[in-house]
């Protein structure tokens, strides 16, 4: 199986979901045990994703020692998990519950332990069930990204998709 981030020339119409919080407001975590955002996850990133204007979201994450690949810098998989979380939350701005189908990450610069990573994501287009999302990360200067990501998420029926795996799929949202 081989896929690529192939942005459609024309997007299906998209509009901001009426229930998405306003710019600056947090988007409720999608599952309390989620590795990316869950407050009850035994180990996790606990990202608080904030709604932005339009189809954008953002989050911040302090790079802690346990996130180390290194030495002294973030592990690429941890950064990818953070991207996955923020990229996957962005489609909620158009009311689409999704799972990750394809995710590309470009690592531009080392990200030191102790730094605050600023993550921004934006839905670029939708084509049938596919949602195309890009994200970037910087350490305080948005003009100087340390990593970028491009992803294709696929819209799912939440209850059906997770029914075989969990008996509490209804706890997921939107
Ligand atoms: C959750 C709470 C929300 C809140 C979300 C909060 C943030 C969550 C962040 C974490 C998200 C995760 O980690 S989710 C966990 C990791 N991901 C997964 O477990 C997904 C595993 N994969 C799957 O379950 C499946 O492959 C699906 C659902 C992605 C697709 O299967 P399907 O439903 O049968 O659909 P299918 O017909 O194959 O594909 C539909 C369209 O997508 C395209 N497509 C399918 N796979 C790919 C691919 N890898 N790359 C490109 N495109 C693809 C197809 O070509 C088709 O396009 P066309 O014919 O229309 O052109």
Give me the secondary-structure topology.
Elements: E1 50-51, E2 56-62, H1 76-89, E3 98-107, E4 116-127, E5 130-138, E6 147-155, H2 158-162
The site of dodecyl-COA has 21 residues, from helix 1, strand 3 and strand 6.
Pfam families: 4HBT
Family: Belongs to the THEM4/THEM5 thioesterase family.
Keywords: Apoptosis, Cell membrane, Cell projection, Cytoplasm, Fatty acid metabolism, Hydrolase, Lipid metabolism, Membrane, Transit peptide
Give a structural overview.
The longest helix is centred in the middle third of the chain and has 14 residues, at 76-89. The mean pLDDT is 93. The two termini are 30 Å apart. A hairpin with a 4-residue loop joins strand 1 (50-51) and strand 2. It is globular and about 45 Å long. The protein contains two helices and six strands. The chain has a single domain, classed as Thiol Ester Dehydrase, Chain A (Roll), CATH 3.10.129. A six-stranded antiparallel β-sheet has the order 1-2-4-5-6-3, with helices on one face. It has 174 residues and is mainly beta. Bound molecules: dodecyl-COA. Dodecyl-COA binds at residues 3, 30, 36, 84-85, 88-89, 92, 97-102, 128-130, 152, 154, 156, 172. Residues 72-143 form the Thioesterase domain. It is found in: Cell projection, Ruffle membrane; Cytoplasm; Membrane. It catalyses: (5Z,8Z,11Z,14Z)-eicosatetraenoyl-CoA + H2O = (5Z,8Z,11Z,14Z)-eicosatetraenoate + CoA + H(+); tetradecanoyl-CoA + H2O = tetradecanoate + CoA + H(+); hexadecanoyl-CoA + H2O = hexadecanoate + CoA + H(+); decanoyl-CoA + H2O = decanoate + CoA + H(+). It is a peripheral membrane protein. This is Acyl-coenzyme A thioesterase THEM4.
């Amino acid at each position: 199986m081989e896929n690529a981030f192939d942005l459609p020339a024309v997007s299906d119409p998209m509009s901001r979901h009426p229930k998405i919080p306003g710019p600056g407001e947090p988007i409720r975590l999608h599952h309390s045990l989620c590795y990316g955002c869950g407050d009850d996850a035994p180990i996790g990133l606990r990202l608080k994703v904030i709604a932005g204007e339009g189809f954008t979201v953002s989050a911040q994450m302090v790079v802690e020692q346990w996130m180390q690949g290194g030495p002294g810098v973030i592990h690429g998989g941890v950064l990818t998990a953070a991207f996955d979380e923020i990229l996957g939350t962005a489609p909620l701005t158009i009311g689409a519950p999704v799972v990750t189908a394809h995710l590309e990450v470009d690592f531009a610069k080392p990200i030191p332990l102790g730094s605050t990573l600023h993550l921004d994501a934006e839905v670029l287009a939708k084509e049938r069930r596919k949602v195309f999302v890009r994200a970037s990360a910087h350490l305080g200067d948005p003009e100087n990204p340390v990593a970028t990501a491009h992803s294709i998420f696929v819209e799912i029926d939440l209850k059906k998709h997770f029914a075989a795996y969990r008996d509490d799929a209804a706890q997921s949202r939107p």
